[in-house]
Amino acid sequence: MKRLAAVRGACLGIAVAALIVGLVGAPAQASPIIIMDVRLQDGSHSIQVDHVGQVVTTNLYFLILDTKSGTANYEAFTATAGAIMSSKGGILGDLMFDPGGTIGDPVGAWGPPVDDSVSSPGYDEVIYKALYRQDLDADGDLDLGTLKTDTNGGHYFAAAGLGMKYKPSEGSEMIGGSKYQRYLIAEGVEFTVASGKPGDSTTVNYVGRGGNNSQKGYSDAVYKSIDPESTSQYAVGDGVAISYVPEPATLALLGLGAVAALARRRR
Ligand SMILES: [Ca+2]
Ligand SMILES: [Ca+2]
Question: Which of 36, 192, 219, 255 has the most neighbouring CB atoms within 10 Å?
């Protein structure tokens, strides 16, 4: 798997290389077919926090390559397996996702918020199969989902498209010069700051579980099963970078301190 930033860099490099050797007919490198991207609800990728207990709310998106732009209903989200994690150390905080508000406040593994036996979700539905909430990187805060190293169930973070019914795209966007159809997979994934100090940071991002059949969708009506570990056809976005800054009251005190120091110096 590779980071989207690296993908963008690679695309730029390829574009330059293509300009240089274009007449020689060098093959263009394909854009990733699937991109997973965690964003803030306003679509941005970074935020500052200043106190314990502060909640950062994010969304998870599934983007799939649309090479026949303008052809409707040729792309679809089918399933994704993996985890939403905060990076190891720095600002610590538990991740929580409570679709439908029916989960309560579970500790450890929890079952699906909707009936997991439902085999054919409606056209606009996504089901979350046996989500797990656990500390995947042993840094003391809770992450969501599973990695390949886990032997427990709940491989799919989210699934749709059973019975030939797919969650419809909410629109398209251009990434690295290619058009993607965008699907909102998880809305309202919360990171609650548990500890941190000015200068600390963490990044909340998606990690594909790895293995065949872990990321699935249709691109231009062709079924794609992508293994994040063994292909360049999969990428994750920048995630949400969270940085800890002094709270305004502290800044004000620092300001007063500076004024006092200046006054002392002038005496
Ligand atoms: Ca963490
Ligand atoms: Ca953790």
Answer: 36
